[in-house]
Write a structure and sequence with these properties.
Its main location: cytoplasm. By secondary structure, the chain is α/β, with parallel strands linked by helices. It has 2 domains: 67 residues, Orthogonal Bundle (DNA polymerase, domain 1), CATH 1.10.150; 291 residues, Alpha-Beta Barrel (TIM Barrel), CATH 3.20.20.70. The protein contains 11 helices and 12 strands. Strands 1-2-3-4-7-8-9-10-11-12 form a 10-stranded mixed β-sheet, with helices on both faces. The chain has a two-stranded antiparallel ribbon with strand order 5-6. Helix 1 packs across helix 2. The structure holds iron/sulfur cluster (SF4). The site of iron/sulfur cluster has 13 residues, from loops.
């Protein structure tokens, strides 16, 4: 039975999950080793899911011993995991201080998407988001972000370019990724590296609530797809739902999206719009949204709200969502409705973001679960 301290991602030696290829080569250079040695180790980590230097059979024994003494490869620890009846898979991953984050894999006919967290909690206080109810705790390290993908890839038996089961990553889990910029950009670099998870740029998506200066910075440093949590078609309503809008109103946000699209012409921008009954789902809201979408080449993704304990919002009726979509489609705006997945394991969108209204209760549950050795309990 593991003690609680054993489920924490702690290491005194550098953890190789904290480095992208460039950083890993620099680390190996500081150990007097050639760059190709770093590449070899990276391939073992991400293509074969090996974390023990002893198992890296094409690396000489002297180097294996040297690496064992100097560095570590420590993936995050899964507290428990569960699969939904629709094959959606959720991992609860242990962090320090009794905290946990959730990572969800959503398989579909032609792709497999992993939803990854960037922070423990979130400080942006979007009114319809369950993560907001637990406040901000801390940023995740690069290793903790990359580690979520590694845990899922290992479970799925994913091998980049050969046995490709994990095809897309969306940074849409807990947290605002642009507030953890360096770690998120470094982690996304590993996701897109051929020696890492080998995903195409457009298959890695960063979702932001609209931090305008950081969207500009992202466009200079990365080629990933961008998603923007819009959720309202005018400033009055958006400021109520997404308080960050007060600082960066819709006009500024759309201008930054235009700049992103201009600098990264091959990337797509998706606007996410959670459908809240009688709040933002009226025909006039759809018409206002059409006007906004004329300003940026984009796609709208309508997300049926997933209620959580204590929320004042309800999900819009199916018919209302369809008529809202029709207004957008008729006006030529590419609009999809997200299918709700993983409802039976609380992994649906919005619920992923930590149903931790009562953290004390949840942490007590984690400990009890560990004490009983119920790694697969839910
Ligand atoms: S929707 Fe995203 S940015 Fe807003 S509070 Fe939730 S996690 Fe934070």
């Amino acid at each position: 039975m593991p003690a609680l301290r054993d489920v924490l991602v702690t290491t005194v030696k550098p953890n190789l999950f904290d480095f992208d290829r460039k950083g890993l080569r620099e680390l190996f250079a500081s150990l007097g080793e050639k760059p190709y040695r770093a590449d070899q180790v990276m391939k073992w980590m991400y293509h074969r899911h090996v974390t023990d230097f002893g198992g890296m059979t094409d690396v000489g024994k002297a180097l294996r011993d040297k690496l064992s003494a100097a560095v570590d490869i420590v993936p995050p620890k899964t507290l428990f995991e569960k699969q939904s009846s629709d094959a959606t898979h959720k991992w609860l991953i242990g962090m320090d201080g009794g905290n946990a984050i959730e990572t969800v894999f959503i398989p579909e006919a032609t792709r497999g998407t992993l939803c990854v967290s960037s922070q423990v909690g979130c400080g942006l206080n979007c009114q319809f988001c369950s993560t907001a109810t637990q406040g901000f705790n801390r940023n995740l390290s690069t290793a903790e972000i990359v580690g979520q993908v590694w845990v899922a890839a290992k479970h799925l038996g994913n091998v980049p370019h050969h046995q490709r089961k994990l095809t897309n990553v969306v940074m849409m889990g807990m947290g605002e990724p642009l507030l953890n910029f360096d770690n998120v950009v470094r982690a996304m670099s590993v996701m897109r590296d051929d020696l890492g998870f080998g995903l195409a740029n457009k298959r890695v998506t960063l979702s932001t609530a609209g931090l305008v200066p950081m969207i500009d910075r992202l466009s200079e440093e990365s080629d990933v797809s961008l998603a923007v949590s819009l959720h309202a078609p005018n400033d009055e309503l958006r400021t109520e739902l997404v308080p960050l809008n007060k600082k960066y109103p819709i006009a500024e946000l759309l201008a930054s999206c235009q700049r992103y699209a201009a600098r990264r012409p091959r990337t797509s921008i998706t606007f996410e719009y959670t459908m809240l009954k009688d709040v933002n789902d009226k025909p006039e809201h759809a018409r206002q949204l059409v006007k906004l979408m004329r300003k940026v080449p984009s796609k709208v993704n309508l997300i049926p709200f997933n209620p959580f304990t204590g929320t004042r919002f309800e999900r819009s009726d199916e018919a209302v969502i369809r008529s809202f979509q029709k207004i957008l489609l008729d006006a030529g705006v590419l609009t999809t409705v997200r299918r709700t997945r993983g409802d039976d394991i609380d992994a649906a969108c919005g619920q992923l973001k930590g149903q931790v209204l009562d953290r004390t209760r949840r942490q007590a549950e984690f400990r009890r679960s560990l004490e009983k050795g119920q790694a697969d309990a839910a």
